[in-house]
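Entry:
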Amino acid sequence: MEIIVGGIIEKDNKILMVKEAKKKCYGKWNIPAGHLENEETIFEGAIREIFEETGCKVRLKNVLPIMSKEIENTTLIIITFTTELLEENISFNKEEILDVQWIPKEELKEMPDEKLRDKKGVKITLKALKENKVYSLDSVKILEYINL
């Protein structure tokens, strides 16, 4: 099982998307996201991944419905947050990301499936945003083990 974390950055009815440079999804648009690393919370991981892929600093606002997906005998748990853009400084590693662009929501909804890395995931996310299916960060708790 792998955990993927990332976030939606919205501005002027557009969403900041990244164009992937990885071989298996080369040239496809995706929401800024990536694998959770050991010893980081889902919150820390989402902020890190968004920054690494876009150069933008964000504050997490809410969490969208959590998704799971089976790919190549691996279960992916996908956690996507809505964000507040704190600092826009578009920069990225060109070995991982080809481009970063603000894409209108309507254009994303109509984008051909072959241009999206995860067509179902992106379209489910857009639908959840439209229907305001977002949940408080308090609905996700980080437990710390203490001696009782």
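Residues 2-139 form a domain with the Nucleoside Triphosphate Pyrophosphohydrolase fold (CATH 3.90.79.10).
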